[in-house]
Amino acid sequence: MREVWWIHYGRYLHERLKGKPTQYITGRQEFYGREFRVTPDVLIPRPETEHVIEAALERKARRIVDIGTGSGAIAVTLALETGARVVATDVSLAALRIAAANGRALGASVDWIACDLASALPSGVFDLVACNPPYVPSQAAIQREVRDHEPAVALYGGDDGLAIYRRLIPEAERILQLGGWLVMEIGYALADPVSAMLGAWTDVEIRADLAGLPRVILARTRITQPRP
Description:
alpha/beta, globular, 228 residues
């Protein structure tokens, strides 16, 4: 038994020395007090993304969409913390399999949908859209263990890091009810350009993370007629 343990230990150590993230070696990552399964098919949930959860919880929404769900960390957490109806989308079928497995393991009721952003969702239905989009500029220098091991589709947001925001913001406006909320994670250098994209929205707010860097942006669709 001890020999088997040493064989596994040696393999894990070799993988770590090659830069493989510990979370992919153990297959686990904690997020908002819960343990999520992670593989190289999904981005490793970061503590900074918990600020998205905190901002979303304040909105007290009953119909929520998590766009680009990855491991399902945001969707599962919001489903369990709020009891709301939660829908989660991802363009990656492999990621959705991981997310659905996390939902089952943690007892969360989430509808998992394979589509690009919100393309398969109906208009004017949801109270809140949450998203941690890819926002790393394609030529940015990032840590080797991130660059070489985490999925590029979940990391890179085009040359300037803004490509997904340009598509996501109008999609979110389409699927939200009047007065609905959009809560997104942002890169620390993207607060101004993303804010500029929200010119037709109201109540735009930027929140910092524990390091004092801009991390979450919130915005509300304009109310042009009484809500039903």
